Amino acid sequence: MTTPRVAIVGTGANGAGIGADLTRAGLDVTLVDQWPENVEAMRARGVIVETPEETQTTPVRAIHLCEVACLRSQFDIALLGVDAYDTTWASQLIEPYLKADGLAVGLQNGMTIDQMLPVFGPERTLGAVIEIAAAMWEPGLVERHTPRAGTWFAVGSLDVATRGREGEVAGILQHAGVVEVVDDIRSAKWMKLVVNSAELVPSAICNLPLLDAARLPGMDAFMRRAGKEAITTAVAAGQSVVPIFGLEDVDPSDPEAVVDAMLDAVYTRWSLPQTKTTVLQDWLKGRRAEAAEINGEVVRTRERLGGTAPVNARIVEVATLIERGELALDPSNAALLLAESGSGRGPTQ
Questions:
Q1: Are 37 and 97 within one domain?
Q2: Which of 119, 251, 293, 298 could form a disulfide with 110 if both were Cys (CB 3.0 to 4.6 A apart)?
Q3: DSSP 65
Q4: How far apart are CA 204 and CA 60, in angstroms?
């Protein structure tokens, strides 16, 4: 059997860590990244992955964006690991190098499948959800807070044209974590967006690791309100409440309880004391973050339905001030977010 050729476009903390896993498993993997120093570091010494238990160094094949044009063969699988707002151009970049019967998969937050489908076509696009905690503060060095055994993926078809091919991607991703094949991947991606709307941007606005932000007075309750507003929006838009993260005993008839279960799982299973969300990592690096693609998606969807999403709109408003340079990252920003927020229940220890 021919070893599948895999391209990973966007090799920050998640993409580089996954790329190292797949390379160690013997797959033919090419890492493509837009951060020049990162590519050079990976070429010079491989990908270094530090977990709480061990440090592994994996030699990898890494190329710059400009070198994609020099490729002379095509890939069987393209995995996108760029930020959600970079999805369209990254898809267009790698599309000519994906085989006619290849598969493209977005390992990203947000509803990026809607940017991928027009580029790759429904016959070459699968949806995915990923849950992992990692950081990259130095080129080529991954701080992986979630080891391989704790990393979770869901993969699913978006069209009858790919039905039955999910196993091709699941068989690859199983080298990087636990993989589930799901029937309703669009709803599963919405459930991930729901929990992301609760935790990623609000905690980043406070310039704190997730668990520390959730312990600020009123913040956990506010974050849960954001998630519950998001899940009611998803249901109103026709999405189903489906379990993700391998959670069991989830009652789809009680969406708000599902939000609590998902957020508690993030607190207890995917967060170390030092875990900073991807949004905060981007801001601390001077990069744009995904507020518009996460909380903004909730706001836009609710507006299309003729309503409003005031909690998520407030999050977007404050995030916009930060990205414009009009507001500094600081724990005191919690005061700009908070309203009556219910019980104030904090993260489970």
A1: yes
A2: 293
A3: G
A4: 32
The Cα 126–Cα 113 span in angstroms is 8
Q: Same domain, yes or no, for 203 and 308?
A: yes
For the chain, percent of residues with pLDDT exceeding 90 = 91
- Structural domain containing residue 320: 187-337
The rounded distance, in Å, linking the Cα atoms of 210 and 273 is: 8
Domain tally, the chain: 2
Query: Which amino acid is it at 230?
Result: A
Residue 310 and residue 228: Cα distance in Å, rounded? 12
- SS3 assignment, position 157: strand
- pLDDT, the chain, mean: 94
pTM of the predicted protein model: 0.94
Do 225 and 126 share a domain, yes or no? Answer: no
Q: Where are the beta strands (DSSP E) in the chain?
A: 5-9, 28-33, 47-50, 55-58, 61-64, 75-80, 98-106, 125-131, 134-138, 141-144, 152-157, 178-181
184 SS3 class: coil
Amino acid at 142: V
Q: Is there a single domain that holds both residue 216 and residue 133? A: no
CATH of the domain at 267: 1.10.1040.10
- pLDDT value at residue 250: 81
Three-class secondary structure of residue 38 per DSSP: helix
